[in-house]
Specification:
By secondary structure, this protein is of the alpha/beta class. The N and C termini lie far apart (41 Å). The relative contact order is 0.15. The protein is globular, with a radius of gyration of 18 Å. It has 10 helices and 8 strands. The protein has an 8-stranded mixed β-sheet, sandwiched between helices.
Length: 316
């Protein structure tokens, strides 16, 4: 279907103001500064408690932000969240609203992770930080009010990549046990054959995230590293068996659409329960724009419903 008219209007604004290599933004520091300047004040969705902490990581402390939806002393599901931003930009503040909404909608404790960014810290720094923060959340589940048997990972874009990678790391490294993984328009294939996905050609430009911008993010993250490694390109794993149930959300007008859907299908083929939703007429970045996009609200309800269905099943 054609681009949603409301989405098209948003893309015009984003393409004019968001940091882009097409407008000469070619350094990570410039991109981060421009992204922060673009942020608009929004009404903050209330939660019972928000706490900034640091947790041990492989190269020093990792900042995290913990969201508690209700202060009632009850144990509830936990979701470790990894923000998007091409492994280069964004932080705890950029995804604060998304994490508040996730905590409230799923009635879960959310731990948002401020992993190290590229190019100062290239692969696998972000992945190892994400895994370390997930290990910490599992080890401190009782302190956080989390039921350790109902621990999930989630993320968008680059954070979707980290979600898939952490799920594989947890399986390969003997834990922690994860019950669910939510990947929103995830980066799944950074390998040499990534251009074989048709959506990279169909949606190469004109829909906010361009192919050129994607390649720039990839170069910042990988440098000279091998994109064939499964912890860089999760779809390259030798086996996907034994991974937690998943929901994969993609956008029709996104260069990343096909690789996300291919990963969803590969998970299904390996026996993993998967809910796969392609948002018609939507573009990369739409998911957290529920204030203005019907497609965002629909995708959120599908994703949140999928998480609740596994983490908070109905009582008999």
């Amino acid at each position: 279907m054609p681009i949603d008219p409301s989405a098209a209007a948003l893309i015009e604004v984003l393409e004019e103001h968001f940091p882009r290599i097409e407008r000469g933004v070619t350094s990570a520091s410039e991109a981060r500064a421009a992204a922060k300047q673009f942020r608009r004040p929004v009404e903050i969705e209330p939660v019972a408690r928000v706490e900034d902490r640091t947790v041990p990581g492989p190269a020093g402390d990792i900042p995290v932000r913990v969201y508690l939806p209700v202060e009632d002393g009850e144990t509830r599901p936990g979701i470790v969240y990894f923000h998007g931003g091409g492994f280069v930009i964004c932080d705890l503040d950029s995804h604060d609203g998304a994490c508040r909404r996730l905590a409230n909608e799923v009635n879960a404790v959310v731990v948002s992770v401020d992993y190290r960014l590229a190019p100062e810290h290239r692969w696998p720094a972000a992945a190892e930080d994400a895994f370390a923060a997930t290990q910490w959340a599992a080890a401190h589940a009782a302190e956080l009010g989390i039921d350790a048997d109902r621990l999930a990972v989630a993320g968008d874009s680059a954070g979707g990549n980290l979600t898939a990678v952490v799920a594989q790391m947890a399986r390969d490294r003997g834990g922690p046990a994860l019950a669910f993984q939510l990947m929103v328009y995830p980066v799944i294939d950074l390998s040499a054959t990534r251009s074989e996905h048709a959506s990279q050609t169909e949606n190469a430009r004109g829909y906010f995230l361009t192919l050129d911008q994607m390649e720039w993010y990839r170069d910042q993250y990988l440098g000279d590293a091998d994109g064939e490694a499964p912890y860089a390109s999760p779809i390259k794993a030798g086996s996907l068996a034994g991974l937690p149930a998943a929901c994969v959300v993609t956008a029709e007008m996104d260069p990343l659409r096909d690789e996300g859907e291919a990963y969803g299908r590969a998970l299904r083929a390996a026996g993993v329960p998967v809910e796969l939703h392609r948002a018609p007429g939507m573009f990369h970045g739409f998911f957290n724009m529920d204030a203005v996009l019907d497609g965002s609200r629909e995708a959120q309800q599908i994703a949140f419903g999928a998480i609740r269905g596994v983490l908070t099943p109905a009582s008999p």
